[in-house]
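Write out the 3D structure for:
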Amino acid sequence: MVNQPAISVKNLNKIYGKNSLSEKVALNNINLDIPKGSIFGLLGPNGAGKSTFINILADLVKKTSGKVNVLGVDHEKDLKTVKSSMGIVPQELNIDPFFTPYELLEIQAGLYGVSRKNRKTNQILEMLALSDKSQAYARTLSGGMRRRLLIAKAMVHDPEILILDEPTAGVDVELRSNLWDSIHLLNNKGKTIILTTHYLHEAEELCDTIAIIDRGKLVACDTKENIKSFINNKKITINYKPKYNFDISELKKMGLNIEYNANCIVINYTPNEINFDKILQKIQEIGIEVIDMNIKESNLEDVFLKLTKN
């Protein structure tokens, strides 16, 4: 099936302590399809339900109700096949410090029942730039290398789907960039990548499809560009040469939201309603001498804050 999603979730619910006084709804009727071959971002505030969702996929938490299909296979009916198609990278750095990367991947492959002749330990280490550390103890690796090693461990059985839970948490900018490169490389090889992150800039850079969960409910799920267009707003900041005879009312007549002082004008407008060229033309007609102009579009953070109301 050409358009079959990597993961399809229908009416998924999880209630902790059901029918008790401490009942907590972690997931509330979640419906979403994760496109095959995509980099899919799962975003939400702390406690929104992201970890519960991933733990259900990993069979660490049992759902209360609903359906989960992974590459067309029923999660509940054929868990062995489902698990073989997924590799899950936890947020915690749970690596045995007394083994080398090569040994850790060999052990992991054995746990998944991968025969020695079918193992790709060296290729995986090379892909994630760990070849030169293959025989070093894991405890000697940097934070970024340990993150990449976790991804390597998740790949030993060659899963079609990789789930990364906060993959760049606690790493510096350079290491984060290296991890982004690794994620893009894996995606280019056909892997579906699902990642949770608190770095909205990271989701905006990496993901092509994004879901936002808040208080257990799915509040948005669409392509990155469509979600960003939810807040269709641009802000123009103009620094200009001071001029006494200028009539700002001509700009206000266009229905623009304007703030200004002696040498700066800030214009907020909706591109779908007002064309930028018309604004620029009016600025020229008024005789404003522009020194500098900056245009800012809505970003993922603006959308996230509006949808989650935090």
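The two ends are 40 Å apart (CA to CA).
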